[in-house]
Amino acid sequence: MRMVLNSIRSHSFRILSVLILIGSLSYVSSRSKQNAVHPLDQLYHKLSPNTEKADRKTIYRRLSLHLRGMIPSVSEWKELENSNEETLESFAVSFLKQPEFAEYWGTKFGAMLRDKSKGRKIPTGSFFQYLADSLHANKPYDVMVTEMITSTGSVKESPQTMFYIRDGADPLQTAEYVGRLFYAKRVACARCHDHPYISDFTRRDYYALAAFFSQQYFRDGSWEPNRYGKTLSYVPRELEVHLPMEDQKNLQDKNNEWNREFWNKWTDEQRKDYQKKHELEFATLYYEPKLGIRFPHTDDAPGGDLVRPKFLDGKEAKLKPGEDRRKVFASWLTDKSNDRFRKVIINRVWTELMGWSFFTPLDDWNEDTVVQGEEILNHLDSYFLANKLKLKELILYIVTSNAYGRSVTSQSANQNTIQYFPPQRLDSDQLLNSLIRVSDLQKVGNIRERNLSFFTNLLGQKPYDLSGTGKVRIPLDNLKEFTNAVEVERPAPYHSLLAVFGSGQRVDISDDISELTIEQMLTLMNGRVVGKLVWDFGSNQSLVKAEFDEKKSMNQVVQNLYFRLLGRLPTKGEWEKIKSYQVKPDNVFDKELLQDIFWALLNSQEFQHVN
């Protein structure tokens, strides 16, 4: 009877998924119609029937900050004003195609994957470039993950190998992060004992997961991988114990023979020549099919055997001799039947855009987790799957809904983040990018703060080609001036504005900090970066001075300044305040007044938040 009921439920879910998918695809095919109802809004209305839509300019600024990590430019604001479109879909498409999208979201993925721009024999920014270029090209998410998990070779040729090299290709560390990143399952507690919070997940299960990632190792010094040809497995000495016993003995015998015949007979100069000859130019990840991982010996449990791989769902893998276990795992992880893999990244994207999560923590979906808005999550999963796991399609689908464009609450007592959009402080990249955008030179030089002790009219093109155009920037060595926060190395230097405003140390998954600090407030009021921007604002060579020379009106310049920073004109009350400080005639340039207004706007809550 139970089997029959399960079969009926499974069949019913498949039918529901098909119906939802048909509805969403119908919307996509007709979304150029202004009155088309977004299927996501139909489901969202069930969850929160009383949402109100924000004004067009607020949503446009929100879109720009969420998709590109920066506020719109003056010309973009004017383009919005001149547009007759009721929706912002074409602008969202434009933002998704621009390099700034890949740069900003590449930084987010870099934080998620704990990317560090620099390392021993690692080209600066190589892993970030891989991530950003993949996003720019709209590469399917499952393809990206598979490329990382199955990667091999030098980091120069295959930068995705940094996925492993980041942790020294340690299979235990890799297993822990794979579980959290791609499956929202925290298994680290089982490294030393059976897991106390996940039922039936033993210490052996932990090692069985790590066994998938035990066939690779990395080197960044002198290494001759084919010293004994292809008939004998040659691995670093510390990994010999993880070979089958016969291979382990054969390698040890061969190493002893090689030492006797060569190394022990060489002079120091000959040894140095040998090491220099085989010195690797770049850090390199090697694959050795015979490597495994042995279960540790303990007093209370037998060990010493090579552990058989087991998936995160508890099922044992069926492997052929010598098969790349990483490929087997990647195939299981990204299989269409594994909706949990997709829902974990959907939850991350949704949280970033909507300000609330289907489940939290984002990396811990356990037996006690309560999922809110599950019907929406299932719907997005169906849409994501139908669109071949392309993240840009998923993002576009979300941001073109009225649910995304919901208003901010005006009631301090009602902070319902599902009904109202929760204001978010600009993250460190959004802040620096926006400061650069409002500067006269469109770049900043010294970002030290601490002392050390476009496309339009695309609505008719269906479906959209969201492949990016233009070249993505990456972190560079010894850069003196920055046009975008993406050019700053990560983790951001301790003394930099990015670090002050919470850019993480890339020690853990997405470890950026969003809490407000006194240091941040003081930095915006009298820090080096803002101080330099304000000091240079209105100089003889500045854009704002050129604008005044053309308009001959301070009122017009002030209006444009408001437009540049906030996307709106001054309110009546703000105009009255400005007039009270305006001592010079309208046709006389007042640099000090502009600098005061500029400073005040930069320190306003309106500028510092995504609303």
Name the descriptors:
single chain; 611 residues; mainly alpha; three-stranded antiparallel sheet; two-stranded antiparallel sheet; 5 strands; globular
Describe it.
By secondary structure, this protein is an all-alpha fold. It folds into 3 domains: 146 residues, no CATH class; 222 residues, no CATH class; 180 residues, no CATH class. It contains 26 helices and 5 strands. Strands 1-3-2 form a 3-stranded antiparallel beta sheet, with no helix packed on it. Helix 3 packs parallel to helix 5 and helix 6 crosses helix 7. The radius of gyration is 28 Å and the shape is globular. The chain starts with a helix and ends with a strand.
Summed up, what is this model?
This protein is mainly alpha-helical and 611 residues long.
